[in-house]
Design goal:
Elements (H helix, E strand, L loop, with lengths): L1 E4 L3 H5 L3 E3 L6 E2 H11 L9 E4 L2 E2 L5 E2 L4 E5 L6
Parallel strand pairs: 1-7
Antiparallel strand pairs: 1-2, 3-6, 4-5, 4-7
Pfam families: ThiS (PF02597)
Organism: Chryseobacterium gleum ATCC 35910
Protein name: ThiS family protein
């Protein structure tokens, strides 16, 4: 799975792309818990998750073929 990272979140990951594999489908909530364990500073950060280009909620399931983006909060208009 490819995880694309944007904005200040790249400072936590030290990269703009993170790759890993999943054996089974997981929810966004499970993904966040997994990432929190590997990147503890992420717990202190607010961010949005997009799956295949669309904003996702914590219950959405993702698979190894999903394209995930972590986006910092944004504003403007």
């Amino acid at each position: 799975m490819k995880l694309k990272i944007f904005g200040k979140l790249t400072e936590i990951f030290n990269t703009d792309e993170y790759n890993f594999s999943l054996e089974n489908n997981i929810s966004i909530a499970e993904l966040k818990l997994m990432l929190d364990k590997e990147f503890p500073r992420l717990k202190e950060t607010t961010f949005l998750v997009a799956v295949d280009g669309l904003k996702a909620d914590n219950n959405q399931l993702i698979s190894d073929t999903s394209e995930i983006a972590l986006l910092p909060p944004y504003s403007g208009g």
